[in-house]
Amino acid sequence: MNNNRRDFLKLSGLAGAGILASASASAVTNLASDKFKSSELFNAGASNMHGYAAPKIDTVRIGFIGVGNRGSAAVKRIKNIDGVNIKAICDIKETQANLAKKGLEGSMHNPALYFGKDDAWKKLCERDDIDLIYTATPWAYHTPIAVYAMEHGKHVATEIPAAKTVEECWQLVDTSERTKKHCMMLENCCYDSFELLTLNMARHEFFGDIIHTEGAYIHDRISKVFVGNLWRLGENQRKGNLYPAHAFGSIAQIMNINTGDKMDYMVSMSSDDFSMGPKAKELAAKDPFYNQYASKTYRGNMNTSTIRTSKGRSIMIQHDTSSPRPYSRIHLVSGTKGMALKYPLPGRFSTSHEGWLDEAEYKALEEKYTPEIVKKIGAVAKQIGGHGGMDLIMDWRLIDCLRNGLPLDMTVYDAAALSVVGPLSEWSVAHRSNSVDVPDFTRGNWKNNKSTMDIDLAKGGNTKVNAPNGKAATL
Question: In 401-459, at which residue ranges do the beta strands (DSSP E only) sit?
Fold first, then answer.
C-alpha cells in the first residue's frame, strides 16, 4: 500500500474499520479506482432510501439530544408545529436540559430529562415511545447518535456536518438502508427564500443548462471559538473545509447531485493560518489557561475546494471563519441562459454580459418563480424566527413529510455527500492539493433518482403552525 493511500485511510477513518479484507488489491492501492468509489467496499446491494416513504405518523414523538444554542432554538420552534409531542430532552449539562424544558412552559409538552452522563443520550434513544431523534450536539457525536438511534427504530434529523469521516458517511448510509429509517441532515440554507427561488427557477430552466455553481461559508467567528465550550477549537485543528454544507447544500440540489448527477472528484487548497494561532497566543499571554491552545496549529483562514461532476460541470466551495470579512454564502448559479448571485446582498439575476436585471425585472421573476411553500408559510416562519424563517420551514417540512408518509426532501445520501467534502478536503490539502475521488453513496442509483426537493404541496401540507399571535397558519 503506498504512503499516500495509507495516510488517506487513516485520515478519513477507513483504516482499521474492518473493510479492507473485502476490498480487492487494486481498490486498496489505487486512490482513483472505481472500486474505491463504489459500494463494493461496503454494503453492496442494499435498498435505495431515495424516494422512500416511511409509514405515516399522526403525532411525531420527538427526543432532542443537545440543547445548547442550536438545539434549544429548535425546541422553541418545533413547539409551534401541530402534530408533534416533545417526549424527551437530553444534554450533558443539567442546566441546559432544564432551560430547554422551561421554554416549553405553557405548552402541551412535558418532556423527560436526561443529563449528566456521556451516554445519557443512549437511554433516550432506547425509549419505545419516540419516533424522531433531533440532534444538535458537538460534531463528533452526530454519527454515533444517528446510527444508534436508527438501530433502535428512530428516524433521525442531525445538525451539520452529519459525519466527520468517509467511514462515518458510509455508516449513516448503510444503517439507514438496513433499518429503513430516515436520516436527514438539517441543512437549513436549502430552505432560505432566495435559495428556494433559484431552485425553482433552475427546475423551470430559467438558467438553461447549469454549468457552474459557487457557495461559501464566510463568517467571522474567531472571537466566539475561544469562549464558552471550546470543543470547536479541536475541530479547527483539522486542515480543510470543516463546514461545507451551508455552502454546498442548496447548489447541490440545483445541480441534482445524487439525482441525475454526482460528484466525481475534487481538489482542495488552504491558505496558512494568519488568525487562529495568533489569537491563541494573544489569549495565552493574558491567561495561562490558553497555553494548551497556543502551541497547536490550526486550519488556514481560507479553504477553496473545487469539484467536477460526472456530467462535466464544476462547483467551487469556500470556507473562512477567521477573517474580518462580511458574511457570505456566495450562492452563485451560472447556466447557458443566465445566472444568479446572492451575496453581497441583495440577490440579483442576469441574462447577459451587459449587467444585472433591474429591480422591476427582479420582482417579476420573484413573483413568477417563488415556490408555494414560501408563499404559504414564509410569513409565519419569519414571525417564529430561526435565521430569517428558514429553520422553521425546514422543521415544518420534515414534520409534515413524516406525518403524511412522504419521502423527505433531503436523504441520507445528501447528508453523506455534503459531509464528505470535509474529510476529502483534508486529504487533498495534506497532499499538495492533489485530486481525490468522491465516493458514490447512492451506489449508482443517482442515474435514476428523481429530485424530492421540488416540494409539491398537493401532497401533504396539512400540518398547522401556531403563530406567535395565537393564530394557526394552515397550508
Answer: 436-437
